[in-house]
Amino acid sequence: AHTSGKTLRVAVIPGDGIGQEVMPEGIACLKAAAKRYDIDIQLDEKFQDWATCDRYVKEGSMLPENWKETLQQYDSIYFGAVGDPARVPDHISLWGSLIQFRREFDQYISLRPCRLMPGIKCPLADKKVGDIDFWVVRENTEGEYSSIGGKMFPGTDREFVVQDTIMTRHGVDRVLKYAFDLAQKRPRKKLTSATKSNGISISMPYWDERVKEMHQQYPDVEVDKYHIDILTAFFVLRPEAFDVVVGSNLFGDILSDLGPACTGSIGVAPSGNINPEGRFPSLFEPVHGSAPDIAGKGIANPIGAIWAGQMMLMHYGYKEAADKMMEAIEVALEKGGPNVITPDLGGKGDCAGLGGHIAKLIETL
Ligand code: ATP
Ligand code: MG
Predict the structure, then answer these.
(1) NCBIfam families given for it (predicted)?
(2) DSSP class of 166
(3) CA separation for the pair 137, 120 (Å, rounded)
């Protein structure tokens, strides 16, 4: 947690497309919360062209050369979106920005809430608010996404490829520790581990073994494990069963897209890329991307960005302010009405209108 009494220093990087539209709303909401709860927060907005495809087209890189030293001076990065596939291929824009941050700042936790919100039509049948409320914790640095391997005998009939999975004790234990800590803080104290030790016969049994070992330090947390195939089915069939779900890089990737998808709108969900020890800045962003199809129209839903700001305050220990932001989001969704709610949720409101409405609720609720 953040040392209180210290300024919370945040680098704001809105990026591409609707990132530029939703982030001002997120900032307005953070400022409203900071004012009401007297939080000493500095939102530095001088990074307007960082991580933009405009910059890439002009300068040949997504970020300036000294990006690491510069961002290193902040506690946190508040990020919008990146990508403009019509001009710059996604692998260039993404690898030149977010992936760099993740790697260089050792953001080894990817954290996503999966929570059914009021006023949103759930794609799963018969689910009510309260039925879906869990977190997905994904290992973000190793596992299946290693670049170790290669192709042999290319072009011949003996051709084959190999790609290794890396699981270090350090890497597995630190993500499990984060997930156990999170589960322990929640009322249900339940942790579900994603595995596939019946098919992947070396790395996944190792993962299971580390879960078992770590569990000894958290005797009050209830642990279960599911193979990834049935686990994805249960996300859809019985999401009530979950509280905190932890997975390797690949399984966590799948679950952290599926989880929010089970709760409705892509415009609403947030995400954190976290370096829990605070040795490097953590990053908070909406789950959605730059959405070129609606960029510039002013109709993007700003809630993903606002909720990401809420997650950031929670992460640094400003619970009261974070709870108020959450309440404001819920009230806006439930009672805002069709003139306030954005078109992705069936309303005819716009980005600035919904953002302003939520900022006002944070001040007054
Ligand atoms: P990425 O490449 O990062 O996945 P993308 O821009 O291709 O990004 P997303 O932004 O994830 O795709 O979203 C897909 C579609 O969902 C968008 O094209 C848009 O129509 C819709 N969408 C996404 N975010 C929002 C939002 N905040 N408000 C309204 N609609 C959204
Ligand atoms: Mg895309």
Answers:
(1) TTC
(2) B
(3) 24
**pLDDT recorded at residue 147:** 86
Neighbours of 160 (CB within 10 A): 10
Ligand 1 atom with the shortest distance to the CA of 343: 29
Q: Is 276 in the pocket of ligand 1 (CB under 6 A)?
A: no
Counting ligands in written order, which one lies closest to the CA of residue 82?
A: 1
Question: ipTM of this model?
Answer: 0.93
Each residue's pLDDT tens digit, 4-14: 568 999 999 99
Write the pLDDT tens digit of every residue in 339-352: 999 999 999 999 99
Of 144, 141, 205, the residue nearest 175 (C-alpha): 141
Percent of the chain with pLDDT over 90: 95
Is residue 1 predicted with pLDDT exceeding 60? no
Q: Whose atoms come closest to the Cα of 266: which ligand?
A: 1
d(C-alpha 230, C-alpha 313), whole Å: 34
Atom of ligand 1 nearest to the CA of 305: 27
Helical spans, DSSP H, in the chain? 19-37, 53-59, 67-71, 90-95, 98-104, 169-185, 203-215, 228-237, 249-261, 303-315, 319-335, 351-364
Q: Residue 2 — pLDDT band, cuts 50, 70, 90?
A: low
Which ligand 1 atom is nearest residue 287's CA? 11
Closest residue to atom 19 of ligand 1, CA basis:
291
